[in-house]
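lol forgot to send this yesterday, sorry. struct tokens for the thing we talked abt
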């Protein structure tokens, strides 16, 4: 089965630990040990998350002696943002049409003459 890049990106972003790792990497290149520090899990568990992120193309890992620094690679996220953007525009247009319709209803609603509303919402004379 062939999995497209967008599916890999969303799958990787679905996990809160992986999103936290990506957030940390926005500050720059970081070692696996530093990425694991704020999480209550083992280094092998963090490594599994890193493999998912690396497979999705969201991070790169290099080797500097014993250290395996990780670096954010945000290009796949741009594709996800572009995909989501189409739906944001769609919903904004629908909400704009709804707002226009509600304004039209209010403008055409019959007005009650000679009645004022009091504080409790009751009609006063």
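and heres what i got for the seq, position by position
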């Amino acid at each position: 089965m062939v999995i497209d890049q967008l599916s890999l990106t969303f799958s990787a972003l679905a996990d809160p630990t992986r999103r936290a790792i990506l957030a940390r990497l926005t500050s720059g290149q970081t070692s696996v040990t530093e990425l694991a520090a704020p999480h209550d899990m083992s280094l092998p568990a963090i490594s599994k998350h890193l493999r998912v992120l690396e497979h999705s193309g969201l991070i790169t890992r290099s080797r500097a002696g014993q250290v395996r620094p990780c670096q954010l690679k945000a290009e796949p996220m741009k594709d996800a943002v572009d995909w989501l953007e189409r739906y944001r525009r769609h919903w904004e247009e629908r909400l704009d049409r709804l707002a226009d319709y509600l304004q039209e209803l209010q403008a055409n609603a019959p007005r009650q003459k000679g009645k004022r509303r009091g504080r409790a919402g009751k009609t006063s004379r």
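The two ends are 74 Å apart (CA to CA). anyway ping me if u want another try
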